[in-house]
Design goal:
Belongs to the inositol monophosphatase superfamily. GO terms for molecular function: inositol monophosphate 1-phosphatase activity; metal ion binding. InterPro entries: Inositol_monophosphatase-like, Inositol_monophosphatase_CS. This is 3'(2'),5'-bisphosphate nucleotidase CysQ. By secondary structure, the chain is of the alpha+beta class. It has two domains: 135 residues, 2-Layer Sandwich (Fructose-1,6-Bisphosphatase, Chain A, domain 1); 104 residues, D-Maltodextrin-Binding Protein, domain 2, CATH 3.40.190.80. Strand 8 and strand 9 form a beta hairpin. The longest helix is centred in the N-terminal third of the chain and has 19 residues. The model has no long low-confidence stretch (mean pLDDT 96).
């Protein structure tokens, strides 16, 4: 029986996690990418393994990863792997558990399978366009509330909100965007907001996981997200419960 895309990427995420943990808390080599922040030897090792494993299994798929030089080749494919080898590299370097491996399959511009794995917590979030969202095999669902948001402090500055008044949501933070999206899907928080241009590899997997858990994901204008763009960035991201999404969009400039 052929392996599904979801099975393929969940297995790959766990194997990637095993590689990354060998470098964790072991003083990995670190470089600065101009204008993009740090990258470690763990990021590069995970990226290479995932590229080899996934494209061997699906040689006709395109490839978009934070740690691989992008080319136009993926634009001529129907399906693409969209990968962040380690989302939350700063957290990884600092010894925090809140970093993740994020893998999505995008089909005709829409995520069709997603896996986000937090090795230090052994939490594997997964979803496909045919399944519900799950954490370690258990179905998850968003919260019914509109009380909390995962966002950076500058995101909630008055300049971004009507009458300089952000929504009445208690702010929390996690370094990894992918993990923030999973926490919303799991119902532990009610929304995540980033207003800055956001790379597709940070968002693709988490957007599907939120949607399959019953949430809404859009850019900062309220438009649906489309992936595999020539410039793989999105105009901010809001992932939330329907109630929280409506409140945020009503307040946002």
């Amino acid at each position: 029986m052929p392996v599904t895309d979801l099975d393929l990427i969940t297995n790959a995420a766990r194997k990637a996690g095993a590689i990354a943990t060998r470098f964790f808390d072991a003083d990995p080599k670190v470089w600065e990418k101009p204008g993009q922040g740090p990258v470690t030897e763990a990021d590069l090792a995970v990226d290479k393994m995932l590229n080899d494993m996934l494209l061997t299994a699906r040689p006709d798929y395109g490839w978009l990863s934070e740690e691989t030089a992008d080319t136009d080749a993926r634009l001529n494919t129907t399906h693409q792997f969209v990968v962040d080898p380690i989302d939350g590299t700063r957290a990884f370097i600092e010894g925090s558990k809140d970093w993740a491996i994020s893998i999505a399959v995008v089909s005709n511009g829409i995520p069709s399978a997603a896996a986000i794995y937090l090795p230090m917590r052994d939490n594997l979030y997964a979803a496909s366009h045919k399944t519900t969202a799950a954490l370690n095999g258990r179905d998850i669902i968003i919260s019914p509330n509109c009380k909390t948001v995962l966002a950076t402090r500058p995101t909630m500055d008055g300049q971004h909100w009507k009458n300089e008044t952000p929504p009445n949501l208690k702010r929390h933070f996690r370094s990894s965007l992918a993990y923030r999206m999973c926490l919303v899907a799991e119902g532990r928080y009610d929304a995540m907001v980033t207003l800055r241009p956001s790379w597709e590899w940070d968002i693709a997997a988490g957007s599907l996981i939120i949607e399959r858990a019953g949430g809404i994901v859009s850019d900062r204008t309220g438009a649906s997200l489309a992936f595999n763009s020539a410039m793989p960035q999105l105009n901010g991201v809001i992932g939330a419960t329907p109630k929280a999404h409506a409140e945020i969009m009503d307040r946002l400039i």
